[in-house]
Amino acid sequence: MAGAGFGAMRGGSEAYVASLPCGLDTYPECQVKAGFYLQILAAIPRPPEHLPPPLADLVANPRPISSWIPEVHHQALAEAIAEQVYGSPSVYLRVVREGQRRLFAERIYAPLLQLLSPERLLRQAAKR
């Protein structure tokens, strides 16, 4: 079963993983910067529980901010945090928005975002 490994969890995270053709191994070529999930982890009062091994490893062994992680892992972890820690997607999204504002204000991203227009960023992202 694609969603196996979430233990007692039910809901968004398990449903998300179960909907993927190869579970957490789906779309390995789609990656996201680790900084996004690290910012989320830094904002939560406690880590989510009952995670499948790849997600538990992301929590137990945080990746460097400059590294890339599978987008599917990021999304599944985000779903688990939204349901277990915040109990509501809207509360989770509010916390994430604030975290992204802080992330984009950091030295590593702020100069890039000051030089590029939103249109150019979207064009560049479409080429990836």
What labels describe this entry?
2 strands; single chain; two-stranded antiparallel ribbon; 128 residues; mainly alpha
Write a compact overview of the structure shown:
The protein has 7 helices and 2 strands; from the N terminus they run αβααβαααα. The chain has about 130 residues and is mostly helical.
Structural account:
With about 130 residues, the chain is mainly α. It has one domain (about 10-125). About 60% of the residues lie in helices and about 5% in strands. It has seven helices and two strands. The chain has helices spanning about 10-20, 35-45, 55-60, 70-85, 90-105, 110-115, 120-125, and strands at about 30-35, 70. The chain has a two-stranded antiparallel sheet with strand order 1-2. Helix 1 runs antiparallel to helix 4 (about 70-85), helix 2 (about 35-45) packs across helix 5 (about 90-105) and helix 4 (about 70-85) packs across helix 5 (about 90-105). The protein is globular, with a radius of gyration of 15 Å. The mean pLDDT is about 85.
The separation of the N and C termini measures: 31 Å
Total separate domains:
1
Largest sheet: 2 strands, antiparallel
Q: Helix segment count? A: 7
Shape: globular
Name the helicity range: 55-70%
- Unreliable spans: none
Strands in their spatial order, largest beta sheet: 1-2
Strand percentage, roughly?
A: under 5%
How many distinct beta strands? 2
Order of helices and strands: HEHHEHHHH
The radius of gyration over CA amounts to: 15 Å
Structural class: mainly alpha
Q: Classify the oligomer.
A: single chain
Compute the average pLDDT.
83
